[in-house]
Specification:
- By secondary structure, the chain is of the alpha+beta class.
- The protein has eight helices and ten strands.
- It folds into two domains: 5-62, no CATH class; 76-231, Aminopeptidase (3-Layer(aba) Sandwich).
- 32% of the residues lie in helices and 33% in strands.
- The model has no long low-confidence stretch (mean pLDDT 93).
């Protein structure tokens, strides 16, 4: 069997039941996939369709496969960019002693197209708890190396997190309050992140992951200069 399943410890602890992951490639058959799913002890399996061809046709007769996401990854070469002043908005490194409610709301907004929200067996409560935890872990340093917030007067209107892995940096969470969108704040947050990366000699690539359905985010990244690197459909497979 060329397929393997992987136990996801964090997800299992967070959801309270066994969760695994399978990467479906061109080297495996749908029959192998079904056999592996049946043999697994996971209640929920994240299935990544790396070949993007066989699964949509095959799974029509199965009611435990949910296509919950089409993950798109954008990348660009890191360069120092000229930052314009975006008064009256100010971008600064996160330095609050306690997490403001406004920031929690923005974190949940960042997940508005999340697969955890689209899965009918999970839903809003899980999505909100997940993104709150993601924010907290980012601010504690385990999920992010840098966090920036955009403020208007005393109000937080946007934020962005960045995590470094070897020679690459990835935007994690990014969101702008609906009342302040279309005013250049998202672009300014990306500029701030890229200029920080440009000061780190070992970093060469900046990436960001979003959902294909999130058209506004895709347009922002493409307009900023990111190039599409990959498109991966994701399914949730429930065994019980």
């Amino acid at each position: 069997m060329t397929l393997q399943s992987y136990y996801l410890d964090w997800d299992s602890r967070f959801l309270g039941f066994p969760v695994g992951k399978i990467l479906f490639t061109n080297f495996a058959s749908f029959e192998e996939l079904c056999a592996l799913i049946q043999q697994s002890s996971f209640r929920l399996i994240y299935l990544y369709d790396l070949c993007r061809g066989i699964l949509p046709e095959k799974i029509r007769e199965y009611n435990n496969f949910y296509q919950v996401d089409t993950k798109v990854t954008f990348e660009k070469k890191i360069e120092k960019v000229l930052e314009s002043a975006y008064e009256p908005f100010v971008i600064q490194t996160y330095s609050y002693e306690t997490i403001p409610q406004q920031l929690y709301e923005l974190a949940i907004l960042a997940g508005q197209y999340s697969r955890f929200l689209r899965d009918p067996k999970l839903g809003p409560s899980i999505q909100q708890a997940l993104y709150r935890r993601w924010l907290e872990n980012s601010l504690q340093g385990s999920y992010a190396n840098q966090v920036w917030v955009a403020t208007y007067k005393t109000q937080i209107v946007g934020f962005c997190t960045l995590q470094v892995q070897e020679n690459c940096a990835q935007i994690g969470l990014i969101a702008v309050s609906p009342a302040y969108q279309k005013q250049g704040i998202g672009k300014k947050l990306l500029q701030t992140a890229e200029n920080w990366c440009a000061q780190q000699p070992h970093l060469t690539t900046l990436s960001v992951v979003t959902q294909q359905e999130n058209l506004n985010a895709c347009r922002l990244y493409e307009k900023y200069g990111f190039q599409l690197a990959s498109v991966v459909p994701i399914y949730h497979v429930w065994r019980y």
